[in-house]
Amino acid sequence: MVKDLQSSSLLRQLQQERICSKMLRLLRSVMMVMILVIPGLLVSVNEAHLSYGHYQTSCPNVEALVKDTLVPIFLTDATAPASFLRLLFHDCQVQGCDASLLLNSERRNTGSEMISSKNFMIRNRESIGLIKSVVESECPGQVSCADIIALAAKESVAFTGGPQIQVPLGRKDSTSSSYKQADLSLPSPQVSVDGMLQIFKSKGMNLQESVAVLGARTLGVEHCLNIVDRLYNPKHTNSNAASANDMLEKGYEVVLKMQCPTRVPLTNLTFVPNDVTPLTFDNQYYRDIIFGRGLFGIDSSISKDPRTSPIVKSFAEDQNYFFQVFASAFVKLSSTNVLTGNLGQIRSHCSRLN
Q1: Rounded Cα distance, 171 and 304, in Å
Q2: Catalytic status, residue 90
Q3: Mean pLDDT of 65-90
Q4: Binding site, annotated residues for Ca(2+)
Q5: What is the pLDDT of residues 255-313, one digit of tens each?
Q6: Which three-class secondary structure string do you get for 300-327?
Q7: Percent of the chain beyond pLDDT 90?
Q8: Which DSSP letter does residue 104 get?
Q9: What is the 3-state composition of the chain as percent helix, strand, coil, each rounded to the nearest 5?
Q10: Structural Rg of the chain based on CA atoms
Q11: DSSP string of 193-206?
């Protein structure tokens, strides 16, 4: 009798332990899912129609198709990842992430954003069109050009050593494009810290994310045209006490003036690397700007401003932390003012309306 009671008690104990173990495993699974999709939870209500499984039935292989098409481009042009990332940023800053930047001027769209002087460095629009044609061959009429831009940008970050970012999908393409709006919306090289913070706050970013998103400039180069004003205009020189937060390290300033030797560049082909590792997505940008080796005034300013300098230092010291915050900022930026549902269209060809 006693043995039976002991056996029964032991059985109940084992069953309770199994239940607790199952609950613990379930809790861990839920926590892991939350960690994996946390960027999606940061998307604002206006972008609630985006989802991580948007193409699960209509085009389940879309991410693989985009990646496989990009790899040969990356291998033949080491600067391509930077251009895809820049393309996303410039597209999202104007009307939202709607592929309006890809539209050419035509009878129904006479004001292409590409006319704006602020977009003169944009490249690889035709490569987005190539990816689109590959996707169309397998999933006709399903995947938007706007989503392809977002996927190309996130693959560019990963390919160059940056974080693996999961982005929600379901954007539609715009039916308009405005170079005037591009002129107004794209920030100038002289943007202030206050201006920068306001721009990214409007995208739903917090202070850390606003500083992290500037780290995208760790990739690629900058044309001399955009930095000569800082190098040669007296109001931007180190001798001006009012520009205490816009300081260039003397040796770096000499190097920049050697690479950009005239106030008016003789050609648009003169450029300088954004940092010392322009082909690698890393935290070198922050390490450089701490010592006054940033191309723009905003670079020096965020390293000196009391609101942002602690964040710059944290990113310079901890690359994984930078990657984490950048991934969150990337999702917020790429989900800004998107067209979903019945708004917009899925273009058959990215450069023109249906």
Answers
A1: 38
A2: yes
A3: 97
A4: 91, 94, 96, 98, 100, 218, 277, 282
A5: 999 999 988 877 667 889 999 999 999 999 999 999 999 999 999 999 999 999 999 99
A6: HHHHHCCCCHHHHHHHHHCHHHHHHHHH
A7: 68
A8: P
A9: 55, 5, 40
A10: 24
A11: HHHHHHHHHTTT--
Alpha-carbon span 257 to 125, nearest angstrom: 31
Q: Which residue among 90, 223, 236, 349 is the active-site one? A: 90
pLDDT of residue 173: 97
Q: pLDDT tens digits for 160-214?
A: 999 999 999 999 999 999 999 999 999 988 899 999 999 999 999 999 999 999 9
Q: Give the residue-averaged pLDDT of 105-132.
A: 86
**Residue 306 backbone phi and psi in degrees, to 5:** -60, -20
- Interatomic CA distance for residues 315 and 208, integer angstroms: 10
Sketch out the chain's domains with CATH numbers: 61-335 (1.10.420.10)
Is 300:246 a contact under the CB 8 Å cutoff? Answer: yes
CA torsion 177→178→179→183, rounded to 10°?
A: -120
- 19-56: per-residue pLDDT in tens? 444 443 443 333 333 333 334 334 443 454 899 999 99
- List the binding residues: 91, 94, 96, 98, 100, 187, 218, 277, 282
Of the candidate ranges 76-85, 182-191, 214-223, the one whose mean pLDDT is the lowest: 182-191
How many residues does this entry show for the chain?
Answer: 354
Instruction: Give pLDDT, residue 50.
Output: 95
Rounding to the nearest 10 degrees, give the CA dihedral for residues 141, 147, 149, 150: -160
Contact 156, 85 (CB under 8 A): yes
13 C-beta neighbours (distance < 10 Å), count: 10
SS3 277: coil
